[in-house]
Amino acid sequence: MANGITRRGFVAGVSAIAPAFAWAQAAKPALGTPPSVISNPPRQWDPSSSPDIYPDPDVLVIDRRFNQYLVGLSAIHRLKTGFQWAEGPAWCAEGNYAVFSDVKGNIQYRLIWETGEVTPYRNPSYNTNGNCFDFQGRQVSCQDFFRRVVRWELDGSLKVIADSYGGKPLNSPNDLAPHPDGSIWFTDPPYGTNLSEGHPDIAGGPGNPDGIYDPALGDGGVGLIGNLRRELPPATYRWDPSGRLDIAVPSEVASTPNGICFSPDYKTLYLVDAGKLLAFDVKDGKATNMRVFTECMVDGVHCPPDGMRADRAGNIWAGCNGQLGYCGVIVWSSAGGLLGRIRLPEMCPNVCFAGPKRDWLFMCASQSVYMLRVNIQGASPG
């Protein structure tokens, strides 16, 4: 006995308080924070090294209306990495595959739906950038190297649908969108005239004013095209099935056109320009009544969009090339309100809706491709 406490009394006292102590511990378990793009340590994207958790911590609901377009038991998956600049995804419903471009790698790839394999599809691709499938199921692509838009016919042959305007070569068609009237609308910025993404101007051209680049070096298309130099201002065009090419949005209205898509009813044209999203009314093949759809500001941070797709509810899913924590995909309502964000560990140039039901968001994010199942379907054919 010490200080009036016996060993037997001490044990009895501990026994009396032990159940309450255990219950208190069980009621307050240690809570964890799932790893994400912005956590430390950050999320591991290799499926073998980190289990998925639902809901995905990198799918952010900003407006509660966004919840209706999400699948709770779904997470972002990285399918493959190692590309130089993944761009221009499009879904082929007939073939059950998605195509996308590694613009700088000069290879077009295909995701085979049944197996999940990502394999080279067209090599070389002549620096193919944007892709789409028209309402007849034909693939239409922008080839930066040749500065043209081509269509792959159902018999496997290739048709050049646009390579010049007013007798002058196009700059470098970038992104495109099919319309039910058979037309193809596409943007023509100057990006593909640089050394890594296409075919440089000849000496003295706007893309090679000092003649420091030699367009013939490594040029597998020597003789197929002549000496090119940029002669046209950037513009957005409408190609008509008759073969006529018209300027839909001139440079004075949109000087750096990039991503392009239509609303589900094809009455609105959306266009990326100078880091913001523009909207136009579409009627009788004309784009009118330009307005700023969104300045693409999130939390006071500018999130410049690249390519985009509309879903069947009229929302716009835009790839974002912002800084880490904001790069990925940003979703805007048809009224231009911010609905949600999908954070990725790298910039995301472009997206499309893939899968037999077109309810998987397929994201081309510079060096990798990702997928997320959603509760909405894409509006365009592919």
Describe this structure in words.
It is a single chain. This protein has one domain (37-373): Neuraminidase. The longest helix is centred in the N-terminal third of the chain and has 21 residues, at 7-27. It has 382 residues and is mainly β. A six-stranded antiparallel sheet has the order 5-4-3-2-27-26, with no helix packed on it. Strands 1-25-24-23-22 form a five-stranded antiparallel sheet, with no helix packed on it. It has one helix and 27 strands. The protein is globular, with a radius of gyration of 26 Å.
In short:
With 382 residues, the chain is mainly β. Helix content is 5%, strand content 40%.
CATH fold name, please?
Neuraminidase
CATH architecture: 6 Propeller
> What is the CATH superfamily label?
TolB, C-terminal domain
How many domains, in number, for the residues?
1
Q: In which order are the strands of the major sheet placed? A: 5-4-3-2-27-26
Amino-to-carboxy terminus distance: 84 Å
- What proportion of the residues is helical, as a percent range? under 10%
Text of the CATH class: Mainly Beta
Averaging pLDDT over every residue, what do you get?
Answer: 90
Instruction: Look at the helices and sheets and give the structural class.
Output: mainly beta
What is the general shape? globular
Determine the number of helices (DSSP H or I, runs of at least 4 residues).
Answer: 1
How much of the sequence lies in strands comes to 35-45%
Q: What is the radius of gyration computed over CA atoms, rounded to a whole number of angstroms?
A: 26 Å
Oligomer: single chain
Order of helical and strand elements: HEEEEEEEEEEEEEEEEEEEEEEEEEEE
Number of strands: 27
User: Which residue ranges are poorly predicted, with pLDDT under 50 across at least 5 consecutive positions?
Assistant: 7-24
Sheet of most strands: 6 strands, antiparallel
